Amino acid sequence: MPKTIFQRIIDREIPAKIEHEDEHCIVIHDVQPQAPVHLLIIPKQVIARIGEASPDDQTTLGHLLLVAGIVAKKLGLPRGFRLVINQGPDACESVPHLHIHLLAKRQMTWPPG
Length: 113
Known about the structure:
This protein is of the alpha+beta class. The protein is built from two helices and five strands; from the N terminus they run αβββαββ. Strand 1 and strand 2 form a beta hairpin.
């Protein structure tokens, strides 16, 4: 199977504006932002989508959420932020590599979508 765009970014084959990186994940700025702050939190371990995660992925999944909080503090987002995970075509999933969208610095609406 060919590498996803996220694997190519992690491998530095494609440039990206990196906000955070550690041994488990990378956080990049979305190239088509939907909010003034729009980051993608991407695990380095390939998990195709949240619905295919296994109990073995629990540590990685928890780490992604902790990193969201760390990055939000770093960027000074006291008014809040939204985390979004898309699963499947009806949710507009565009890359088969799990990632979390962190959106901030605009008023979010409810219900979303």
